[in-house]
Backbone:
């Protein structure tokens, strides 16, 4: 280490100067003087460290073989993996660890067992889980680009809502243990991942807020469209009176916000071309009948389906998967 610059001369009372010089001298000797490291070269210590390294690598080799070759999901393997950072997936500037993957797999299997649900075959299930974990990490990295953020307050609010719906925190904790085999902290992590997906869909991907009037008879539908064109303010009343979509009729045909890939293709093709406040100039025919569409609002910046958005996040990224 470079020598420290000597303490500069001090003027004034020498009785005050001398203690400062003694302190500085001690600091200087500590950093620039010889260090006694003989204990580091003691044969017993060297042998002990070597033995520990050999044991660690040997156990790691066995665990690695169990994980990558036999797809072991045993409790003992999951415990040992807490000190072995084996990768399940390597991504640009990120890694998904085997222990995190196995924990997620454990939750799925536990839930299926408790609810008597049938899971896909083992290979399909593992592939679906790996794909989901990759997508979640890619979404997490995309948050900075699109200005999306999941705050602790968001997580707490969602947790409280779920807790209230299930009889309080104690009942929720029991439910999580019984149904999923997970604890409170692990559940909050799942909440964060879900909120992240929802925020991407709601705030980044283009969504249209639309109303519609559905009529099965073409002549009647055309007559209603002509009335709306003459007086757009009558849209809600006409929807309540004539629309055959019972789910939205009483709400004036209000469909709320929706993204691409939700509505039937003919409906979507027109709705996403219309501007805010614009009415479809012609009837839109679908397998359900004839639609009159009014776009109330639009939001978002990326005009893609959620599936296409994820595919573009993966595009040109080198992703190595070690678990099959």
Residues:
């Amino acid at each position: 280490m470079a020598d420290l610059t000597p303490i500069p001369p001090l003027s004034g009372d020498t009785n005050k100067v001398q203690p400062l010089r003694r302190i500085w001298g001690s600091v200087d000797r500590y950093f620039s003087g010889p260090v006694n490291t003989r204990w580091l070269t003691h044969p017993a210590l060297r042998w002990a460290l070597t033995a520990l390294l050999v044991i660690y690598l040997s156990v790691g080799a066995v665990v690695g073989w169990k994980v990558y070759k036999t797809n072991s999901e045993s409790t003992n393997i999951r415990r040992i993996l807490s000190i072995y950072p084996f990768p399940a997936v390597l991504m640009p500037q990120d890694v998904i660890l085997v222990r995190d993957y196995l924990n997620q797999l454990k939750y799925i299997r536990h839930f299926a067992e408790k609810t008597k649900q049938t899971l896909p075959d083992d290979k399909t299930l593992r592939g679906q889980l790996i794909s989901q974990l990759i997508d979640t990490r890619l979404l997490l990295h995309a948050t900075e680009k699109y200005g999306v953020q999941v705050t602790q307050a968001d997580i707490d609010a969602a947790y409280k809502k779920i807790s209230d719906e299930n009889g309080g925190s104690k009942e929720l904790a029991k439910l999580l243990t019984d149904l999923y085999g997970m604890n409170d902290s692990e559940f909050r992590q799942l909440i964060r991942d879900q909120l992240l997906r929802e925020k991407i869909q709601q705030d980044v991907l283009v969504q249209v807020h639309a109303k519609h009037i559905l009529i099965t008879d073409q002549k009647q539908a055309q007559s209603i469209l002509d009335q709306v064109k003459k007086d757009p303010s009558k849209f809600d009343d006409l929807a309540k009176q004539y629309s055959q979509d019972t789910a939205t009729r009483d709400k004036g045909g209000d469909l709320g916000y929706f993204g691409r890939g939700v509505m039937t293709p003919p409906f979507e093709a027109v709705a996403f071309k219309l501007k805010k406040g614009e009415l479809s100039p012609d009837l839109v025919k679908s397998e359900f009948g004839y639609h009159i569409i009014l776009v109330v609002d639009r939001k978002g910046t990326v005009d893609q389906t959620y599936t296409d958005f994820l595919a573009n996040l993966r595009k040109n990224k080198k992703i190595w998967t070690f678990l099959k």
